[in-house]
Amino acid sequence: MTEDSALQTYLLGTVALDDLLRLQRRLHYDVTGDPTQAALIVCEHPPMVTVGRQGSRSHMFWETGDLEQRGWPIRWVNRGGGCWLHLPGQLALYAILPLERLGLSIDGYLLRFADALARVLGDFSIHQKIETSERGVTVHGRLLAALGVSIREHTTYFGACFNLQPDLEMYRYLRCHPDVSETMTSLERERRGAVRPAMVRERLIEHFKEAFGFARLSLFSDHPLLPRSVRLQEVAAEPRL
After folding, report:
1. Are 164 and 203 in contact (CB under 8 A)?
2. Residue 205 half-sphere exposure toward CB, CA atoms < 13 A
3. Beta-carbon contacts of residue 178 (< 8 Å; ≥ 6 apart)
4. Shortest CA distance to 86 belongs to which of 36, 48, 132, 130?
5. Are 171 and 125 in contact (CB under 8 A)?
6. Alpha-carbon distance 96 to 27, whole Å?
């Protein structure tokens, strides 16, 4: 990107999927109309399952009606990847980037995205047995961050989920990707200790910015399309970027 290029970064709290998709559509429209722009959304979602293009109901192993009893909806979405279980303690990242302006192929974009996520682990003293691919990031063969993107008009949307500290028990009941049977893990499990969520968000954003060559960040904690109730939940812990 150019020396003055800025990554518009939306650092949000818990956002309902429909609200997020509405915001993503608007940002995608803005970036396709002006490729000098780019955006990244970092948020969490209420408990639910999203199913990408490689996923199916057969990859979920809950008893019939169990998700309904929990009040966890299942939503089919237009992204790559399989079934993702969203729970508190998991960060969702939505990247809206102009690939032609960045000079990246789809595979190159995915690998650079995965590398940015993997670099976060090093900031928290995790250095061994880390592997990256177009599917995401594994540690000791356990999936910690999953990638699932879409491309339209040479502009990316959707992105990744990153397990910071979710309850891992429930991840035994689904297969995140049909071709991979690895168990899920989290940053706290691999580190064997607690982490500050605000610091993880800070490092994620910084590594993403560096990976894709942005000179600076423009940080936002709201957008006019979002309900007024959607706010950063730890205002005092905003990244100092």
Report:
1. no
2. 28
3. 54, 55, 56, 59, 82
4. 48
5. no
6. 7
CA 187 to chain centre: 14
Determine the Cα–Cα distance for residues 153 and 99; give it in Å rounded to an integer. 9
pLDDT averaged over the chain? 92
Give the orientation angle of helix 197-211 with respect to helix 106-123, to 10 degrees: 140
Beta-carbon-side half-sphere exposure of residue 117 (alpha carbons within 13 Å): 34
**pLDDT, tens digit (0-9, with 9 covering 90-100), for 138-186:** 999 999 999 999 999 999 999 999 999 999 999 999 988 776 667 899 9
- Residue identified by tokens 């995205």 is 113
Following DSSP, what letter does each residue of 142-189 receive, concatenated?
EEEEEEEEEEETTEEEEEEEEESS--GGGGGGB-SBTTB-PPB--HHH
How, if at all, do strands 155-163 and 216-220 pair?
unpaired
What is the Cβ-side half-sphere exposure of residue 35, based on CA atoms within 13 angstroms?
13
Nearest to 178 by CA among 59, 74, 84: 59
Instruction: Identify each DSSP E strand in 60-154 by its residue range.
Output: 74-76, 83-86, 90-96, 130-133, 136-139, 142-152
Tell me which amino acid residue 227 is: P
pTM: 0.93
Using CB atoms within 10 Å of the CB of residue 230, give its burial: 0 to 12 exposed, 13 to 18 middle, 19+ buried.
buried
